C-alpha cells in the first residue's frame, strides 16, 4: 500500500504563528540592544513590516477556515446506499461526506508509518530474544535426554493487521505465532470437525489431532511405538474416542510456564531498553507479553505494547494449529460437544500466511492507487463508531459479530467475486467502495449471502494461495457467522444500517480537525440493545 504524508494544519499554523512571534521578539531585542543608533530619526516603528506579515498570516488562517466551511456547505450530496429498499429508504442529506471521511481517516484512523515501523521492529527484537532463549533452555526432559519433550522451533511468525497494512488507530497490540517442535517419534493426524454430526456451529472451524507413528525409520510399530511415546502422551495428550489426541489445553499450560522461565533468562539484558512482563491467559487465552518503555528511553516512539504469544503446531504449507481455539459463544457451551469429544482436544487453525499471499495476489492485479485496504480500515472505524453508546454486553456481542477477521473476509469475498480491484476502487470512488462493503456485510448478516472462510474447504481460494495440507482441502466450508442466532444477526444488520445512515453526524461528533463544524452531541442515553438510542 502506498504511503503518503499530508500537512497537519492543526500543527502547521500554530507553529508558523509561534515562529513569527519569536522573530518579532528577536527583532525588538536586537533593536533595543542597538541603542539610540537603531532608533529611526522620525520616531517611526521599524517593526511595522514584521507586524504586517503576522497580520497576513492571521488573515490566511481565517480565510482557510472559511474555505473549509464553504466547501462543507456547498459540495454536492454524499454517496447513497442503493440496491435494496432498506438502504434507499433513508438517503444522506449531509453534504461533504468525502471530506469528512478523508478528515476522519487522516486524524483518527491512519497510522503513522514511522511509528508503526518502529513498533514492529521493537516487537521483533524483544520476541526474537525471548524465543531464542526458550529454544536454548529446551524443555524439562520427560525421559532422559528429553527425546520426547516439546520445544520451541526457534523462529516466530508475525500475523495480524499490523503486518497486512490495515491496522488502525495505534500500533499497541500485535499477534505472534511461536511454532513448537514435536519429538521425532511423534506425528499428527489432524481432522476437521466440520463434518461432525450434532455439533454446534461455533466449533465447526476447530480441529483435533490424533497421534500416529511418523513414516520414518525412527518410528516403531504397534505396541512398541505406543510404549515409547507413553511419556509424551501422558504429558500432552487426552483420550478421544479411544485414541490419544494432542491436547491444546495441556500444550498451552506448558507453553506459558516455559515462557516464564525463558523471560527470567533475558529480563536482565532487556532492562536497559524496556520493561517486560508476561501475563498468563489461563486456559482460554494465550499469554500476553507487555512491553513498557523505560524511563531512560528517549526514543521517538515510546509506546506501551501488548504482544499475544500464540503456541502453534505446523501442519505444513504455512498452516498452523493454534491453542487455544476461538472462544465459544455463550449460546454454544461446551456441553453441546458430541459424546466422546473433549474440549481440551480442540485446536484452532491459523491461515495467516495464505491470507497474506491472497492479499499480495490481489495487490499485483489491482489498478494503481487502489484503496481497498483503506476501505477496510474505514469499515473497522465504522464498526467502532457503531459500538458507541452500547452497554458492555451489547458492545461485546457487536464486536464478536463484526470482528476484524469477519470484516477482512468481507473485503476478500467482495474482491474475489470481481477477480481483482479494478478502476472502481480508486480514491475517487472511496465512498462508493465503502458502501459496497457495508451492503455486502449487511446481506451476509441477513443471510442473503453466506460469508465462508476464505481458505477452508472446497470453496476457498486455494488456487490463489498455493498448496494446502490435506486436512484443510478436505475440510467442510465454514460459515463465519453461523454461530450467531437469527435475532442477533438481524439486530446487528439494523445497527449497521443505522450507523451508516448517521455516518456524517458521527464523523463530525467523534473526529476531524477543529475547523470542521461539529454537529450537536448525540444523546447520551445508554442502551441495552443494538437499536435502542443513538451512539
Automatic annotation (TrEMBL):
Highest taxon of the lineage: Eukaryota
Span of domain Mab-21-like HhH/H2TH-like: 372-452
Subcellular location field: Membrane
InterPro entries xrefs: ITPRIP-like, Mab-21_HhH/H2TH-like, MAB21L/cGLR
GO cellular component, one term: membrane
PANTHER family, sorted: CELL FATE DETERMINING PROTEIN MAB21-RELATED, INOSITOL 1,4,5-TRISPHOSPHATE RECEPTOR-INTERACTING PROTEIN-LIKE 2
Protein's name in the database: ITPRIP like 2
Originating organism: Mandrillus leucophaeus (Drill)
Organism taxonomic ancestry: Eukaryota, Metazoa, Chordata, Craniata, Vertebrata
Amino acid at each position: 500500500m502506498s504511503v503518503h504524508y499530508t500537512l497537519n494544519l492543526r500543527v502547521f499554523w500554530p507553529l508558523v504563528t509561534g515562529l513569527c512571534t519569536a522573530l518579532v521578539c528577536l527583532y525588538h531585542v536586537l533593536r533595543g540592544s542597538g541603542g539610540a543608533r537603531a532608533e529611526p530619526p522620525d520616531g517611526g516603528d521599524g517593526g511595522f513590516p514584521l507586524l504586517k506579515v503576522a497580520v497576513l498570516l492571521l488573515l490566511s488562517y481565517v480565510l482557510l477556515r472559511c474555505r473549509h466551511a464553504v466547501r462543507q456547505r456547498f459540495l454536492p450530496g454524499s454517496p447513497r446506499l442503493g440496491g435494496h429498499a432498506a438502504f434507499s429508504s433513508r438517503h444522506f442529506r449531509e453534504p461533504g461526506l468525502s471530506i469528512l471521511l478523508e478528515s476522519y481517516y487522516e486524524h483518527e484512523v491512519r497510522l503513522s508509518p514511522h511509528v508503526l515501523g518502529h513498533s514492529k521492529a521493537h516487537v521483533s527484537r524483544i520476541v526474537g530474544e525471548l524465543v531464542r532463549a526458550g529454544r536454548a533452555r529446551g524443555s524439562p526432559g520427560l525421559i532422559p535426554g528429553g527425546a520426547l519433550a516439546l520445544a520451541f522451533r526457534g523462529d516466530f511468525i508475525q500475523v495480524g493487521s499490523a503486518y497486512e497494512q490495515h491496522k488502525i488507530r495505534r500500533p499497541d497490540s500485535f499477534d505472534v505465532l511461536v511454532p513448537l517442535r514435536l519429538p521425532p517419534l511423534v506425528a499428527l493426524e489432524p481432522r476437521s470437525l466440520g463434518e461432525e454430526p450434532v455439533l454446534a456451529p461455533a466449533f465447526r472451524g476447530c480441529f483435533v489431532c490424533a497421534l500416529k507413528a511418523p513414516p520414518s525409520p525412527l518410528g516403531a510399530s504397534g505396541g512398541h511405538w505406543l510404549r515409547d511415546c507413553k511419556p509424551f502422551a501422558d504429558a500432552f495428550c487426552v483420550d478421544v474416542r479411544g485414541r490419544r489426541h494432542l491436547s491444546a489445553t495441556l500444550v498451552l499450560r506448558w507453553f506459558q510456564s516455559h515462557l516464564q522461565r525463558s523471560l527470567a533468562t533475558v529480563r536482565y539484558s532487556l532492562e536497559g531498553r524496556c520493561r517486560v512482563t508476561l501475563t498468563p491467559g489461563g486456559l482460554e487465552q494465550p499469554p500476553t507479553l507487555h512491553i513498557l518503555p523505560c524511563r531512560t528511553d528517549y526514543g521517538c516512539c515510546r509506546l506501551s505494547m501488548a504482544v499475544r504469544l500464540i503456541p502453534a503446531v505446523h501442519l505444513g504449507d504455512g498452516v498452523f494449529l493454534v491453542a487455544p481455539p476461538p472462544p465459544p459463544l455463550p449460546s454454544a457451551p461446551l456441553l453441546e460437544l458430541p459424546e466422546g469429544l473433549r474440549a481440551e482436544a480442540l485446536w484452532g487453525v491459523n491461515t495467516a500466511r495464505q491470507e497474506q499471499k491472497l492479499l499480495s495476489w490481489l495487490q499485483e492485479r489491482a489498478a494503481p492507487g487502489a484503496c481497498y485496504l483503506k476501505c477496510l480500515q474505514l469499515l473497522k472505524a465504522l464498526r467502532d463508531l457503531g459500538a458507541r453508546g452500547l452497554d458492555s454486553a451489547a458492545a461485546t456481542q457487536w464486536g464478536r459479530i463484526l470482528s476484524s477477521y469477519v470484516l477482512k473476509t468481507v473485503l476478500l469475498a467482495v474482491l474475489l467475486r470481481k477477480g481483482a480491484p479494478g478502476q472502481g476502487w480508486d480514491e475517487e470512488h472511496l465512498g462508493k467502495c465503502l458502501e459496497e462493503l457495508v451492503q455486502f456485510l449487511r446481506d451476509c448478516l441477513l443471510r442473503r449471502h453466506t460469508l465462508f472462510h476464505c481458505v477452508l474447504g472446497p470453496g476457498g481460494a486455494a488456487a490463489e494461495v498455493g498448496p494446502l495440507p490435506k486436512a484443510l482441502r478436505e475440510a467442510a466450508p465454514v460459515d463465519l457467522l453461523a454461530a450467531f442466532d437469527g435475532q442477533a444477526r438481524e439486530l446487528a444488520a439494523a445497527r449497521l444500517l443505522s450507523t451508516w445512515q448517521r455516518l456524517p453526524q458521527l464523523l463530525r461528533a467523534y473526529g476531524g480537525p477543529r475547523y470542521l463544524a461539529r454537529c450537536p452531541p448525540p444523546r447520551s442515553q445508554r442502551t441495552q440493545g443494538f437499536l435502542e438510542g443513538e451512539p
